[in-house]
Amino acid sequence: MLPWLLMALSVCTRPGTGLPPRTMDSVVQIMEALESTDHGFNGTVPELARALGGCGTPGCRAVLGEPPDVPPAPPTLSHEQWLLFTQLLRHDAAAPERGAVLAPDGSTVALGPLLAGIEVGLKRAAGWPIPTVEPPIDALYAVTITEALGTSFLLARDGDGNRATLGPGGCWDDVDDPQNYTLLGPPSPIPDAIANGAMDGVLLGAHLARAPTPLADLLRGYYGTGNSTEKGRPPSSYRRRDFGVLTGPGKLEEEVAAMLRVLRVLPPTRELLEDVGPEEVVAIARQAAQDFTEVYVECPAIVPRCIWGARPYRGTPRPLTLPLGSVYIHHTFIPSTPCRTFTACARAMRAMQRFHQDTRGWDDIGYSFMVGSDGYLYQGRGWHWVGAHTRGYNSKGYGVGYVGDFSVTLPDPDAIALVRDRLLPCAVRTGRLHRNYTLRGHRQMGHTDCPGNSLFREIETWHGFKPRWTLVHTEPDPMVAIMDWPWSKWTPAQWMPTLMDTSPEGPQP
After folding, report:
1. What would the pLDDT profile of 346-382 be if each residue is shown by its tens digit?
2. Inter-axis angle of helices 192-210 and 215-223, to 10 degrees?
3. Nearest of 6, 38, 17, 174 to residue 80 by alpha carbon
4. Count H helices, E strands: the chain?
5. What angle do CA 454, 460, 465 make, to 5 degrees?
């Protein structure tokens, strides 16, 4: 398999396509070229992006005005760079994800809302007048997220309940040289790439309003492009946390409601809202803000298998019956070093999957999810399929493993909070985990030191942790139990299901 050196990607083109890879590195190189000298366009780079269609919706036009005419190709860009830039900014309501690029942290970002937010920030810093809109709205949120969010939930209100309002994520055809991005499920007006671009547009627009910075430098610093593959977490990996802090409770709902009122008076969108009363506008805004906050702020980002380079599952996966009642915490022990970049975490995931499939003979990587120290969870078997993490209990709970050896040291505080404060509450809210779930360390369920002494002492303080007997694995029956538990008070119906879950797959030590 090719190495995933995302941050070292050059502007080289893939044979047969003629275009640079659709990465944030390519975008930064385009920004550098446009900012390096007079590029023949009477305006800023975000205005150039708007001329190419990056902010062509009715609400965005109402806030920022009609886009400039499309200029000739700037002489500082190669033909291939200009073609890529125009393709990334061409608005397509039927496929908004087409304007997406792959960032070094493994996330996918749409350029349209990103550059629209940046334009608002630059205008605020320069004291330029932004067209006033009635009722008043926050321009930064209007051009990035609230129009798309309000429209998505407005269109879904008369549907059959199956219309997607948020998401999904997607897969790149080649993570080393991404050219095509395909969604993993039914599309909505706000796939993950749009959500990421919108949050980044808000954050970077707010930053620029306070401290104007050359865009190439801004994007390079925020996304960590061109630095190397092992420099640690870039600021973009904190986007969910930072967006939640900046936006605050109630702000998103307020701005979605205001944008819907603006759309009511704009000719292109007036018909959509002619039968929607004031109370329904408030209800739509509340639902949209709540759902977006849950999915993109309160719940953690999970890197899908196709992004970290998973092999196919061998055989037929067994479905879980949700909601589950337990969570089992592990550490990998090997690799022993926490991974702090997407490149390192993806490499660790592939190594673990090879070990589990080739050495242990399992169908797939055993864990449900892995926890990187780069700010992301990584999908193993995921929410819906039986794993191979806690022998005898694989069908009863999720196996969540931290990448690293935590016998003596703890994971980073962010990595602890990622599971404790975000994954577990999110799993409950979304119906994947019982509200009164039980959390245990792997050592409580089998003869092992996993998840390490330090991490085990940490999870003893978490909500849902329960003391438990220790199972001693013997041969040939791996489920002989020595436990501090009154077996005599259990009926066969209570303990037989536990002993029956003896999949040939078992936990990694």
Report:
1. 999 999 999 999 999 999 999 999 999 999 999 999 9
2. 120
3. 17
4. 18, 12
5. 140
